[in-house]
């Protein structure tokens, strides 16, 4: 399974824990905004997306000239990868970092995240090298600490290398720091911060990603990307979602409550362990049974999870999204049934 949510490979009636989309849905008014987009289908979108860049920059806390837009965050990641000869990734990580690099014929080197964060001088960084890190990481759900991120950035800046921070899950995590605030003073020199509407705003089908970087890099991204990669629906939706403070606050509170609830409930199991997470998904590690067995048993019970083979984890695991309390209870019940069967 290269990506989650591919229900066509199974059954569309499954309870899907394989994708990490906000179970609260999208902000109120999105459907009306989509209707506005329909009226705009008769003309091309603004080729430079000026209003859209202004809206996004105000939400992120940067400037419009530092803002890049893409058909999902992956288009921006792909464009940034094209600018460097050597790409460093951590293991485990989102598989597209390696795949996009290979498509671009780049030299790809992978290291444990701890080595990248604690020993950046050993990476032999130079101006032709870029490091891509998920923050929070996919599939572990863990954020990089502020101190370690700044330590790594100092080495990157000193060697005139580049740091790409994929923060597609930023809004789900605890607000101990904001990367945008950390790098504003440096003008985003040697760093790009990439986020998206996909997960938190519940809009994977909109394919709307965005990033902040220094002006020169943002201009290069615009030249690399295909023209008109964003459709007419994005602008009216963007006018709405970033201003819905109630949705943003309620979503953050919901995930904090459900994270804490699941951490408590998983402690009652004997054959599995929930690994700590800062995000809206988590890993389950199993004792005395293969992850593939649990995957199949859950599938029999109408529940789809995410296998982790393509993440290069050092151990077998399943990745699961945090969903509504009702769905989470159904999952916990199914896992209890599996546990009872193992004990017999």
What is the approximate shape?
globular
The percent range for strand residues is 15-25%
Q: What is the structural class? A: alpha/beta
Number of strand segments:
13
Domain count: 2
Q: What does the average pLDDT come to?
A: 95
Rg over alpha carbons: 20 Å
Give the helix level as a range of percent. Answer: 25-40%
Number of helices: 12
CATH topology of the largest domain: Aspartate Aminotransferase, domain 2
Which strands sit side by side, in order, in the main sheet?
2-8-7-6-5-3-4
Distance between the termini: 31 Å
Low-confidence stretches: none
CATH class of the largest domain: Alpha Beta
- In sequence order, what are the helices and strands, one letter per element? EHHEHEHEHEHEHEEHHHEEHEEEH
Kindly report the name of the CATH homologous superfamily of the largest domain. Answer: Type I PLP-dependent aspartate aminotransferase-like (Major domain)
The biggest sheet, with number of strands, parallel, antiparallel or mixed sense and barrel status, is:
7 strands, mixed
Tell me what the structure shows.
It contains twelve helices and 13 strands. It is globular and about 65 Å long. A seven-stranded mixed β-sheet has the order 2-8-7-6-5-3-4, sandwiched between helices. Strands 9-10-13-12 form a four-stranded antiparallel β-sheet, with helices on one face. The protein folds into two domains: 118 residues, Aspartate Aminotransferase, domain 1 (Alpha-Beta Complex); 212 residues, Aspartate Aminotransferase, domain 2 (3-Layer(aba) Sandwich), CATH 3.40.640.10. It is of the alpha/beta class. The two termini are 31 Å apart.
């Amino acid at each position: 399974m290269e990506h989650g949510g591919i229900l066509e490979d199974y059954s569309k009636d499954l309870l899907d824990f394989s994708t990490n989309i906000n179970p609260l849905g999208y902000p109120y008014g999105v459907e009306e905004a989509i209707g506005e987009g329909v009226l705009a289908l008769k003309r091309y979108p603004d080729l430079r997306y000026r209003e859209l860049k202004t809206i996004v920059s105000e939400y992120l806390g940067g400037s419009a000239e530092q803002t890049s837009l893409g058909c999902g965050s992956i288009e921006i990641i792909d464009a940034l990868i094209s600018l460097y000869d050597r790409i460093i990734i951590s293991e485990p990580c989102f598989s597209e970092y390696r795949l996009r690099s290979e498509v671009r014929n780049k030299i790809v080197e992978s290291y444990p995240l701890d080595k990248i964060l604690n020993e950046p001088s050993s990476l032999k960084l130079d101006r032709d090298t870029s490091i891509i890190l998920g923050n929070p990481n996919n599939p572990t759900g863990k954020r990089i600490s502020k101190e370690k991120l700044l330590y790594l950035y100092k080495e990157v800046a000193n060697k005139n290398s580049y740091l790409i921070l994929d923060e597609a899950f930023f809004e789900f995590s605890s607000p101990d720091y904001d990367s945008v605030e950390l790098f504003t003073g440096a003008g985003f020199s040697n760093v790009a911060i990439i986020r998206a509407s996909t997960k938190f705003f519940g809009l994977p089908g909109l394919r709307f990603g965005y990033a902040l970087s220094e002006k020169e890099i943002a201009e290069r991204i615009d030249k690399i990307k295909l023209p008109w990669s964003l459709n007419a629906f994005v602008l009216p939706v963007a006018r709405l979602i970033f201003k819905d403070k109630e949705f943003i606050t309620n979503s953050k509170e919901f995930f904090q409550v459900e994270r804490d609830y699941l951490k408590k409930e998983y402690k009652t199991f004997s054959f599995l362990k929930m690994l700590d997470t800062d995000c809206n998904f988590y890993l389950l590690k199993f004792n005395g049974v293969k992850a593939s067995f649990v995957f199949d048993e859950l599938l029999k019970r109408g529940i789809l999870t995410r296998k982790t083979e393509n993440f290069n984890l050092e151990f077998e695991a399943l990745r699961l999204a945090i969903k509504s309390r009702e769905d989470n209870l159904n999952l916990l019940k199914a896992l209890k049934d599996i546990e009872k069967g193992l004990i017999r």
